């Protein structure tokens, strides 16, 4: 567990846990969005002063990028696990069921941090949106490559449009995130997952 020592009032050093502070910042960004999260919101949640935030993480933008790294590492593990599944259907099942568990977990706010920030529109958030879009493009490319392999192996029918299949799954994932953020129940999301998988090509 990494710690940082920053100078507090009256010149006395104060130590805090960087990991815990970053987790607190992630929750603020996830709940309020990048533009909606003020430095006061962040420092109060993290339990540190503004000078300590700058010393340990850089500015607000740098802090968000670090928080997004943490989000991907902790909350999107199922996406990496999905690519290792032996069949294309297994990939889809792992993705959709993983998203279901993530969206109905009590350990964090509902909705997807990536979806929230991919539609951010203020000038302040342009670099944030660009980073989120670039990360999503990388994930999409990996999924397309996995489905292309499935076609080559005969696991997916030859007529399947891999680009369209990948877009279909990502639309389901994004739709689940938006619905979860709007208060959809687990039963509602389970119904969406079941219907989505019923439409998936092959066996």
From TrEMBL:
Residues 15-75 form the HTH tetR-type domain. It comes from the Bacteria. InterPro entries: DNA-bd_HTH_TetR-type_CS (IPR023772), Homeodomain-like_sf (IPR009057), HTH_TetR (IPR001647), Tet_transcr_reg_TetR-rel_C_sf (IPR036271). The keyword DNA repair does not apply. It holds the Pfam family TetR_N. Residues 38-57 bind DNA. Keywords: DNA-binding, Transcription, Transcription regulation. PANTHER family: HTH-TYPE TRANSCRIPTIONAL REGULATOR YJDC, TRANSCRIPTIONAL REGULATORY PROTEIN. This is TetR/AcrR family transcriptional regulator.
């Amino acid at each position: 567990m990494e710690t940082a020592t920053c100078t507090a009032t009256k010149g006395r050093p104060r130590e805090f846990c960087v990991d815990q502070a970053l987790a607190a910042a992630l929750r603020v960004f996830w709940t309020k969005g990048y533009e909606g999260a003020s430095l006061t919101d962040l420092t109060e949640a993290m339990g540190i002063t503004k000078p300590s935030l700058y010393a340990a993480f850089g500015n607000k933008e740098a802090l968000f990028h670090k928080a997004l790294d943490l989000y991907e590492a902790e909350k999107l593990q199922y996406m990496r696990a999905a690519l290792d599944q032996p069949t294309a259907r297994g990939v889809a099942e792992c993705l959709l069921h993983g998203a279901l568990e993530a969206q109905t977990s009590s350990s964090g706010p509902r909705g997807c941090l990536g979806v929230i920030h991919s539609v951010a529109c203020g000038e302040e958030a342009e670099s944030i949106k660009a980073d989120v879009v670039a990360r999503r493009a990388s994930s999409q490319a990996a999924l397309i490559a996995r489905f292309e392999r499935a076609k080559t192996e005969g696991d997916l029918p030859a007529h399947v449009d891999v680009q369209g299949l990948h877009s279909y799954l990502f639309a389901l994932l994004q739709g689940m995130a938006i619905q979860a953020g709007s208060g959809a129940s687990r039963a509602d999301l389970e119904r969406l997952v079941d219907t989505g998988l019923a439409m998936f090509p092959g066996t």
